[in-house]
Design goal:
Blueprint lengths: L1 E6 L5 H10 L5 E8 L5 H8 L3 E4 L2 H6 L4 H7 L3 E4 L8 H6 L4 E5 L13 H10 L4 E8 L9 E8 L6 H24 L2
Parallel strand pairs: 1-2, 1-4, 2-3, 4-5
Antiparallel strand pairs: 5-6, 6-7
Helix pairs in contact: 1-7, 6-7
Bound molecules: 5-O-phosphono-beta-D-ribofuranosylamine.
The site of 5-O-phosphono-beta-D-ribofuranosylamine (GRF) has 14 residues, from helix 1, strand 5 and helix 7.
Length: 188
């Protein structure tokens, strides 16, 4: 089995779709959820699905080993970021080269970088009167939203969109693409 760890700290709707996709999958198993926020929705989702969780400590993550030892001990092969806002420390990137991916709710390289997440992304897209937005799935490197792009998918932006309505459209795209792309990357 290829074991994946999902790093998520929000509602966890992407994590839920990924868990659903790989339930009883012959090759891929969601073996761990890593979260930095006590009480985050994703923790309940993990519990419901009997998936092990680690609530990480900031000091240890950034100044310790980046949880590399724990990930190795569990036998994690691949890391999926789904709404995880902390920067991934170099020690972790070096330990999992080209084995960490992220999903971003816009068409990178536009609307990426530090502080560009969630509603801020959609508000800026709307303020700039973009006609389209979308999602980017990319490898994670030392810089925010910077690694090689694996895939992008687009959706229209309507003149009367609000950050919420656009967020909903983007979330739908994420749910459709992310589990599938993970499968394509791991089942070759
Ligand atoms: C997603 O929109 C993703 O693009 C971003 O964080 C959000 C997570 O949403 N990186 P959810 O917690 O999966 O619902």
């Amino acid at each position: 089995m290829k074991k994946i760890a999902v790093f998520a700290s929000g509602a966890g709707s992407n994590a839920a779709k990924i868990i659903e996709k790989f339930k009883e999958h012959p090759v891929v198993e969601v073996a761990l959820i890593i979260c930095n926020k006590p009480g985050a929705g994703v923790l309940q989702i993990a519990e419901k699905n009997n998936i092990r969780t680690i609530l990480i400590d900031k000091e240890k993550f950034f100044r310790g080993n980046g949880y590399v030892d724990e990930l190795r001990q569990i036998g994690i092969d691949f890391i999926v970021l789904a709404g995880f806002l902390w920067k991934i420390p170099d020690v972790l990137i070096k330990a999992f080269p080209k084995k960490i991916i992220n999903i971003h709710p816009a068409l990178l390289p536009k609307y990426g970088g530090k502080g560009m997440y969630g509603q801020f992304v959609h508000e800026t897209v709307l303020a700039n009167k973009e006609k389209e937005s979308g999602i980017t799935i990319h490898y994670v490197d030392e810089h925010y939203d910077n690694g090689d792009i694996i895939i992008q998918a687009k959706c229209p932006v309507a003149a009367d969109d609000t950050p919420d309505s656009l967020a909903q459209r983007i979330h739908k795209l994420e749910h459709e693409y992310y589990p599938r792309v993970i499968e394509e990357l791991l089942v070759k």
